[in-house]
Write a structure and sequence with these properties.
13% strand, four-stranded parallel sheet, 5 helices, Rossmann fold, single chain
Length: 169
């Protein structure tokens, strides 16, 4: 069998880039990155047909850590950019990587409409219930009464529940 026709099974390590991962020690984002690389290797996807699109925030460093194609877009606009990527090339496996602040605050409308349109994209939402990059502002998913730097007497907003938003869309 010639090498061109052989299918090479990629490992989780093959999906990692040469960039140093720069999240805070103990951050849950490390576990998500590790699991996504494992899942992609078990699904048998190719790096050349996989695109990660992110917005702003800690989760949005994700495309740098993957050995695939990727876009680091602007705050809240990753679903809009991912929609454009998918429309331009429907054969691509398109992933949106976003956080609770990025997707459910400034990007809420883009998140909602990407789900509503039922595009063939994957949205990976990192929900730590806080704005981690700015070190402690409350986010749209923070619990009612959460005390933070931006809500010293406690959040007056009730949290959004991402799955409820998705089901409602």
């Amino acid at each position: 069998m010639c090498a061109d026709s052989a299918t090479v099974q990629l490992t989780a390590k093959d999906f990692g880039s040469d960039q140093d991962v720069r999240w805070c020690p103990g951050c849950g984002d490390y576990a998500i990155l590790s699991q996504v690389k494992k899942v992609l290797s078990t699904l048998g996807v190719s790096r050349e047909n996989t695109v990660f699109v992110s917005g702003i925030g800690c989760s949005s460093r994700f495309p740098y850590y993957m050995n695939t194609y990727g876009f680091h877009s602007i705050h809240g606009r990753a679903p809009a950019v991912a929609t454009g990527v998918k429309v331009a090339n429907p054969e691509l496996d398109v992933w949106v990587v976003t956080g609770d602040g990025d997707a459910l605050s400034i990007g809420g409308n883009h998140f909602l409409h990407a789900i509503r349109r039922n595009l063939d994209i994957n949205i990976l939402l990192f929900n730590n219930r806080i704005y981690g990059l700015t070190k402690g502002q409350y986010s749209p998913t923070s619990p009612f009464g959460k005390r933070t730097k931006s809500s010293p007497v406690g959040s007056v907003d009730y949290p959004l529940y991402p799955l409820s938003v998705a089901i409602g869309a």
